[in-house]
Every structure is written in C-alpha cells, then in structure tokens.
Amino acid sequence: MKLQHINIENLKTANVNVRKKGGKEITDLLPSIRSLGLLQPLLVRPNCGGFEIIAGQRRYHALEKLAEEGEIEPVPCIIMDEQDNAKAIEASLAENIARLPMDEIDQYKAFAAMAKQGLSAEDIASQFGITERLVTQRLAIANLINPILTAYRNGDIHAGTIRILTMASKRQQKAWLELYKSEEDQAPEGYALKSWLFGGANIATENALFDLDNYRGGIVSDLFGDDKYFDDASKFWELQNTAIAKAKEQYLINGWKDVIVLDVGEYFPVYDYVDTTKEEGGKVYVASKHDGEVTFYEGQLPRKEAQAKLKVANGEETTANVRPELTKPMQNYLDLHRHSAVRTELLGHSDIALRLAVAQIIAGSDRWTVHADPQKANNDSIAESLATNKAENKFAEERQRVRELLGWSDDVADTIVPAKNDWQRQNDIHEIFAKLIELDEATVIRILTFVVAETLPAGSALVEALGNLLSADMGEYWQVDEIFLDLHRDKEAINAMLKHIGGKRVADGNISATAKVQKKIIADYLDGTRQPQKQDWQSRYMDFPMRAYTKRGGVPTIENWKAVKKQYV
Are 254 and 502 in contact (CB under 8 A)? Predict the structure, then answer.
C-alpha cells in the first residue's frame, strides 16, 4: 500500500463499502474537518480510471460538502494493493490517529513537541498520513503566544485571523493582542491585518538600531500616545542597513560561521531550523520587517543541514552542499568572455603558441583530437553578449585572413579546425599540407598560432595561465553589460561588488535591499548616473587571476587555477 494525494473528482464510493446507511450523515464531521483538516486518510483502490472508496465514506461526503463551499486540497488516500487487508489498514490508521490530542490547539502543540524532538514536518506527516503542508501550518500556529491561542480555542478569534498572525513577530503578536483587548481601539483583521503587519503602519523610532541623533529627517510624535515615527523611510533604512551591516561584521568577528541578511519583509520560518551553538556551526539570520523591526536569530541551522551533520558524526557518508557564488549561466558567461580575450592575446605571441602546441601533443588536451572550441553559450542572451565582444570580432577577422592564406572560399564552415559535433566535415589533409608547403615559415607559424588559439578550451586552467602570462587586460575587450548583471544571483557577492565600485557606506546602506535594487545601483555607477570611487572600474571576475567576492569558494575558474598555479610561479 502507499499514501497518495488524489483530487476529489477522481474519487467515488464503492458498492463493497460496509456502511450502507448513514454514509451521508456528516453533521458531526464537518466542523472537525473544516478546522483540523482530514486527519485519517481514505482507504481506496483503483477502479475505471479513478479510485473507489473502500473505507471512509462519511469523510468523503464531508469533503464533498466542503468542496461546494470552496476549493479544497487533494485528499490523502491509502491505495490498497490486491493482497492488502482493508480491516488491518483501517485499524492501524485509527490507532495512529487516536494517539493525537483531538483538541485543535493541543494537537498543534503535540506537533511542536515532536518537532523539538528532532522530527521534521515530513516525518510527522508520514507518521499520521496527512500532508506535510498541513503539519507545517500547525507548527506555525503552535508558535503563536499563549493568550492568542487561548482566545482562539475559546472561539473569540476567527481562524483566518490566526493564520495571518502566524506571520507576525512576537512583538507584533503582543501589540495586536493589546489592540484586541482594548475597549477603545479595534484590532485589524483580514486584509487590514496584513497591511498592519507588512508596512501599512509607520516606522516607529523604537525599531531603530542606530542613534536617533544621526537621523537627518523629521520625527513625528503621536499626540494621543507616547509613540514616535520617522517621516522618511528611505533615510531610516539607510541608517538601519548600516547598523545591520555593522552588527554582521561584529558577529563574524565574534566567531559566528555565517550571517545571512534576509530581504526586508522576508519571512523566517523558525520551525524549519534547529537551535545550534556557534561552535557547532550555528548561523545568524537577520530578519527585517517592513515596519523597521529587526530580529537576530542566533544559532540557527537548517534542519536538513543539521541532519547531514548528524550523519557525518555517526560515520555515514554525505556530500557537502555548499551554495556556489556563481550560477552555471554566470560561470559560462565569464568563461566565454575571458576565453575570447586570452586567445586573442595569444595571437601576438607565436613563440608561446608553438610551445603550447608541443606541450599539447606530448601531454594531450581536451581539444587536441583536434577540435575547435565550440564557444557554446547556455542561452541566447549570453550568445548575444559574446557576439558584441571586441575580442571575438577581432578573432573572427584573423580567421578570415587564415582562410585566405589557405585558399579557402567564404562558404567554408565557421571554424578552421572542425568542431567536435561537426561529424560531416572532414578537411583534406593533403590539400592543406600541399598549401602549407608553398607558404613561408612566418605564414605557417601565423596559421599555427591561430589554430592553437582556436582549440584553446574555454573555462580551463590554461586560459587562466595564459591570461596571467600575457597580462591580458579585459578592459580592452569587455565592459559590464546588462546580461552580466542579469545573470548574477548571489546577493552577498552583489553587495560586495557594490562596495567595490561604490564604497562601504553605500554597500552597508543597502545590505538588506533586494539583489535587483543593488544591481540597479551598480548600473547607475556604470552609466554615469552615480560617480564611482574608481574610474574604468572592472569586476574582480575579469581579473587575471580571477578573484571572488565572497569567501565561500566553489567557483570553478578559481579552483582550476589554484590547482595548477604553483607550476607557473
């Protein structure tokens, strides 16, 4: 048997169901399923393209009624194999469900207790035959403060309000509860509550991490209360972000492994993380609300990462999952542009090309079969960017001259050396050899230099070695373009790049801004809208050797060079 979630329209009652009367008497079930969800899955078997219900007819009819009221999620069902005993399965499920407290809040707290014991939402869902999403929702509700849960249990707070409050911080929950208890004020609900939680309210001075004397705007006082508010959100966030950046630096100085600053308004699901000490690799997560409140979650580790650590401690093999600084398309973009610059530089150094050719003959090469590098772009935008590269155009001009030296017509394939996937193309070695005999040594060496450059593998350590040896200047061939910024996804690296071009104050002042906002600021420096700290700025990714913007590592180009650089020093 197996658990599967099936759309209700694919279910139907079966003639073999033992309940012949009362199957549609569902008055007592409706409130429980509407509130708690379906705790015990239906027992079904395949029939005529759908599934027929062997056990759970009343639960099915209750779900039908709820479907009339609005859309419902797929129904958890146990699908029987032919050899399964239906009564045994029903008895086992009933025993599992009976272990849960049936009071709604008690059930939520039972799930929370199981999570604290190390069980994941997936583990709990599997144990009780319910959806993982349902468990996650209940864990979030269990995280609410007790007075709110008590009011909900007593029927004083609507379920929709409770769900929205799961996104509130503890401070916001307490503030909402005060409004709820007040005889003069009214606590927001529904859409108004969401607005109240996510920025509808002004930014109170109590949420500032900085000295109020440093604020250069106005502060508005509540004439009927003690609260004070900032009148300019952008000025507030510049100071608040600078304070967050300073706090991050201090955490790292104090020995924390990593500090992750979330986007403003990004929800931090505490139930998906495990409390972990600094010494055991715990991280610090910084969550900022739209109203300016900042929470530092110290000693947190994603549950999956904690489980992987436990496997390592127990001697089990596991693979470290380090998030690389660069995405594959971004790495491809950098490899192709750097490759074009280095092989074009090689054109002016035939003595080096000759020695490289001899080395490749002796030791072999990724391209020495012999094939031209395919210059394969991962997507059309990268191909479009490469087409405008000055080095690529200069290289194409030399390719045309070599064609003419060999006596080839213009309709010959794009490359001098066939590409690996060009199976139908075969150059006539005797024709080429006879032509080379007629040419002087300088011309032959010129052709040799070109074909060596054309077979240079993109993204390889050889590109890095030659880039250093030839002192290749990427600034002569490439400038930051829209595609470069669009491909970059790593927020920490983008913030470091912003610091590189605009300075520490600007980078710190935007540390919690989205990657999109920070890339727009970088673009403003490049087009002259803002004045950069350094004229003719180039990204560290285009240095030789390449340099990263974070300490995480995992950039193939840098790792390739590290593996071989001692041979060139």
Answer: no
> Which residues contact residue 43 at a Cβ distance below 8 angstroms, ignoring those fewer than 6 apart?
53, 54, 55, 56, 77, 78, 80, 86, 89, 90, 93
Q: How large is the average pLDDT for residues 341-361?
A: 78
CA distance 341 to 343: 6
SS3 26: coil
- What pLDDT, on the 0 to 100 scale, is given for residue 411? 65
CB-based contact 334:464 (threshold 8 Å): no
CA distances from 404 to 145, 227, 295, 371, 558 (A): 81, 81, 68, 20, 38
Structural tokens at position 8:
């209700």
For 72-104, how does the pLDDT look when each residue is reduced to its tens digit (9 = 90+)? 888 888 888 767 766 666 665 565 555 565 566
Helices (H), 143-189: 146-153, 159-165, 170-181
Q: Tell me: the pLDDT tens digits for 383-437?
A: 999 998 999 899 899 989 988 888 887 766 678 777 777 666 666 767 877 777 7
On the CB side of 283, CA atoms within 13 Å amount to 15
- Residue 296 one-letter amino acid: F
Return the pLDDT at 542: 93
| Residue 22: pLDDT over 50 | no
Burial class (CB in 10 A: 0-12, 13-18, 19+), 535: exposed
Classify residue 37 as left (phi > 0), alpha (psi -120 to 50) or beta: left
Q: Which residue, among 359, 365, 343, 371, has the nearest Cα to 469 in the 3D structure?
A: 343
Domain chopping of the chain, boundaries: 2-146, 204-321, 328-476
Quick check: 244 and 294 in contact, CB under 8 A? yes
What are the beta bridge partners of residue 300?
275, 283
Distance (Å, whole) CA 65 – CA 58: 11
Q: How far is C-alpha 457 from the geometric centre of its chain's CA atoms?
A: 30
Helix axes 461-469, 328-346, angle to 10 degrees: 40
Which option is the CATH number for 2-146: 3.20.20.10, 1.20.1250.20, 3.90.1530.10, 3.90.226.10?
Answer: 3.90.1530.10
Contact 297, 284 (CB under 8 A): yes
Place of tokens 């790792």: 559
- Of 550, 564, 565, which Cα lies nearest the Cα of 324? 550
Q: How far from 536 is each of 478, 497, 540, CA to CA, in Å? A: 11, 14, 13
User: What percentage of the chain carries pLDDT values higher than 90?
Assistant: 36
* Measured distance CA(385)–CA(391) in Å, rounded: 12
Token representation of residue 422: 């060009």
Q: How far apart are CA 174 and CA 145, in angstroms?
A: 8
Specify the residue for token string 């931090």: 268
SS3 301: strand
Band of residue 54 on the pLDDT scale cut at 50, 70, 90: confident
